[in-house]
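Q: I'm building a small set of examples for a reading group on sequence design. Run inverse folding on the following structure and report the sequence directly after it, with nothing in between.
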């Protein structure tokens, strides 16, 4: 049986640090310490050639369980729906009005951080309700 591989999730974006800090707040992730020899990420960034400054940022699960999220600047903007998205599991085990209340509360919190709401998908007898959301650069994700 093959071993489980570690992975990171990479986001293409215009403003890596802004998007990374949004996802830190969504998931309870943290910014990892800067490379050795640098007091902070700003110091590290200033050490890079001008064209590389602000080009990447990351956040990590402080428990070490979840995947690292990496954000890289790309020149093109987002133009189509994501083929892969994150499901943020806030309503696990809940159904009906209890689930909708949790989805609503988390959606309101994230809107306060700069997210926007998409379609609310109501339970259909097969799938439970979920709220489609968009992060600060329009990337789709679901509150599930």
């Amino acid at each position: 049986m093959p071993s489980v591989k570690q992975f990171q999730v990479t986001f293409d974006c215009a403003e890596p640090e802004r998007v990374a800090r949004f996802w830190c707040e969504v998931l309870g992730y943290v910014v990892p310490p800067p490379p050795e020899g640098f007091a902070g990420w700003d110091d590290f960034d200033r050490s890079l050639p001008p064209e590389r400054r602000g080009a990447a940022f990351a956040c990590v699960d402080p428990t070490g369980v979840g995947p690292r999220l990496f954000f890289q600047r790309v020149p093109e903007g987002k133009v189509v729906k994501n083929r892969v998205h994150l499901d943020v599991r806030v309503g696990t085990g809940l159904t009906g009005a209890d689930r909708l209340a949790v989805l609503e509360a988390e959606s309101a919190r994230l809107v306060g951080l700069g997210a926007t709401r998409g379609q609310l998908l109501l339970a259909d007898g097969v799938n439970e309700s979920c709220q489609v959301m968009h992060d600060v650069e329009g990337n789709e994700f679901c509150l599930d």
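The chain has two domains: 8-73, 86-143.
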